[in-house]
From TrEMBL:
Source superkingdom: Bacteria
Keyword Oxidoreductase assigned: yes
KW Flavoprotein (keyword) present: yes
Alphabetical UniProt keywords: Flavoprotein, FMN, Monooxygenase, Oxidoreductase
Coiled coil residues, start to end: none
Protein name (record): LLM class F420-dependent oxidoreductase
Residue stretches making up the Luciferase-like domain: 10-230
Matching CDD domains: Tetrahydromethanopterin_reductase
Length: 263
């Protein structure tokens, strides 16, 4: 991932692919890039998470292919892909392709999955939280091996973002495989789980304090109130979200201004 000069502080915005026509989503992505955010994310679900549960919704990876052509500067990715929905080798090849379409701007955000309706209605085995995390752990070496075997190879080492906060299992997978860890919660929760991540890192031989970027959801937070404390706690990627159909980017704009004031 590229870094904002001087501080390494970055801002992401998740454009929720729900409750909107695709033209409204496309417009929101353009506005986000023009605003100056560093990364534009969508998510990987098949039904809305908020609002009308049967409202408009679009698929993640076909959308990322379109975003790769539409945008020119921002990095793009899912926050996050559900590992359960695609064969890991297929997912790796999809990611490699979007990486090339975008000119090396893809982040592979991935997680174990949790939204049971997706599983039930699309015919996937829901299993248990433990089985889904074990599947994610098993998928990561396959993804990386498929990238290594691809022709052409990815344009770069595609950054892997893993989302989740399970202290015993998920953070172990983060320690082993992630370049970015995405989490939720207040600063105290972040500090505690970040320390646990570093314990896992020591166990697997990775200096996660220096090689794993901390990303945090900051929806609705005022950067002038919480930004410096989160920065001191180790957060370097601050991510907010915007929902359809209007896609209000006011919060993202505030974080961009805060970022730029520290550059």
């Amino acid at each position: 991932m590229t870094q904002t000069p001087a501080t390494g502080v970055r801002v992401g915005v998740q454009i929720q692919p729900q409750q909107a026509d695709y033209g409204q989503i496309r417009d929101a992505v353009l506005r986000a890039e023009d605003l100056g955010v560093d990364i534009v994310f969508n998510w990987d679900h098949f039904f809305p998470l908020y609002g009308d549960p049967d409202g408009k919704h679009f698929e993640c990876w076909t959308m990322l292919g379109a975003w790769a052509e539409q945008t020119s500067r921002v990095e793009i990715g899912a926050l996050v892909t559900c590992n359960s929905y695609r064969n890991p080798d297929l997912l790796a090849d999809m990611a490699r392709t979007v990486d090339h379409i975008s000119g090396g701007r893809l982040i592979l955000g991935i997680g174990a999955g949790w939204f049971e309706r997706d599983y039930d209605e699309f015919g996937y085995e829901f299993g248990t939280a433990g089985s889904r995390i074990a599947d994610l752990a098993a998928a990561m070496p396959r993804i990386k091996a498929r990238w290594a075997a691809g022709n052409p190879a990815p344009t770069r080492d595609i950054p892997v973002m893993i989302g989740g906060g399970g202290e015993r299992k998920t953070l172990r997978v983060v320690a082993e495989h992630a370049d970015v860890w995405h989490s939720f919660g207040d600063v105290e929760t972040l500090r505690r789980k970040s320390a646990i991540l570093d314990e896992h890192g020591a166990a697997v031989g990775r200096d996660t304090a220096s090689v794993v970027t901390r990303s945090l959801a900051v929806d609705g937070s005022d950067p002038d109130e919480v930004g410096d404390e989160l920065l001191a706690a180790g957060v370097r990627l601050f991510t907010c979200s915007a929902g359809g159909p209007g896609y209000d980017l006011t919060n993202a704009a505030a974080w961009v201004r805060w970022r730029d004031a520290r550059a």
